[in-house]
Amino acid sequence: MFKLIHEDIASIMARDPAARTPWEVLTCYPGLHAVIMHRWARWCWTHGLKWLGRFISHVARFLTAIEIHPGAVIGRRVFIDHGFGVVIGETAEVGDDCTIYQGVTLGGTSLNKGAKRHPTLAKGVIIGAGAQVLGGFTVGEGAKIGSNAVVVKPVPAGATAVGNPAHIVQKELVQSQEETAARMFSAYGITPNGADPLSMALHGLINNAASQELQINKIITALQASGVDCASLAALEKFDPAQLNRLVE
Question: What pTM value is reported for the model?
Answer without folding.
Answer: 0.69
